[in-house]
């Protein structure tokens, strides 16, 4: 049975591993998975996950996991930018679960949370070239492109009004 729930403290390392594994395939990284993880950990690529409490929960955000029989198969998070804007972060789902409406289901949970928090819009950044499927998913949900709001030159920025 597929469930969506808050991440537990003992699941943070598992969730990070899952994100690295999925990204390794999506970005067609030629290094071994272990080398890729070591490289991105040295760059603190998922540093926000090292302190979920401060980065998400204490800052009007949320971090959810999707499970299949208690095995984590996906993640999704919202972090506060300011009183009106939040950012969609860490939306990842194992490839074998794509096409089943599960990403949409996670997004509905995150949208409900953002509306309850009183945010006016959700922003996100994604790599249009490597994450074309995610880019199309966001467009289908009603996200539209906006000027970049960070220094991440490889990604396109998008937002949706709530």
Describe, in plain words, how this protein is organized in 3D.
With 162 residues, the protein is an alpha+beta fold. It is built from five helices and seven strands; from the N terminus they run E-H-H-H-E-E-E-H-E-H-E-E. It has helices at residues 12-26, 33-42, 52-55, 102-117, 132-141; strands at 2-6, 62-68, 71-80, 85-93, 121-126, 144-146, 156-161. The chain has a seven-stranded mixed beta sheet, sandwiched between helices. The longest helix is centred in the C-terminal third of the chain and has 16 residues, at 102-117. The radius of gyration is 15 Å and the shape is globular. The mean pLDDT is 95.
Q: How confident overall, as mean pLDDT?
A: 95
Strand portion, in percent? 25-35%
Uncertain stretches of 5 or more adjacent residues: none
**Rough outline:** globular
N- to C-terminal distance: 30 Å
Helix content: 25-40%
The number of helical runs is 5
Widest sheet: strand order? 1-2-3-4-5-7-6
How many DSSP-defined strands?
7
Kindly name the structural category: alpha+beta
Largest beta sheet, briefly? 7 strands, mixed
* Radius of gyration over C-alpha positions, nearest whole angstrom: 15 Å
Order of helices and strands: EHHHEEEHEHEE
């Amino acid at each position: 049975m597929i469930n969506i729930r808050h991440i537990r403290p003992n699941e943070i390392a598992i969730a990070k591993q899952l994100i690295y594994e999925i990204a390794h395939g999506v970005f067609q990284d030629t290094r071994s998975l272990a080398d890729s993880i070591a490289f991105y950990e040295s760059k603190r690529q998922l540093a926000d996950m090292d302190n979920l409490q401060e980065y998400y929960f204490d800052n009007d955000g949320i971090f959810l996991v999707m499970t299949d029989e208690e095995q984590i198969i996906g993640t999704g998070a919202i972090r506060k930018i300011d009183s009106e804007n939040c950012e969609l972060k860490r939306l990842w789902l194992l490839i074998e679960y794509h096409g089943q409406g599960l990403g949409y289901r996670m997004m509905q949970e995150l949208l409900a949370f953002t509306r309850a928090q009183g945010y006016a819009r959700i922003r996100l950044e994604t790599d249009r070239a490597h994450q074309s499927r995610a880019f199309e998913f966001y467009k289908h949900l009603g996200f539209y492109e906006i000027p970049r709001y960070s220094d991440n030159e490889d990604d396109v920025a998008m937002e949706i009004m709530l």
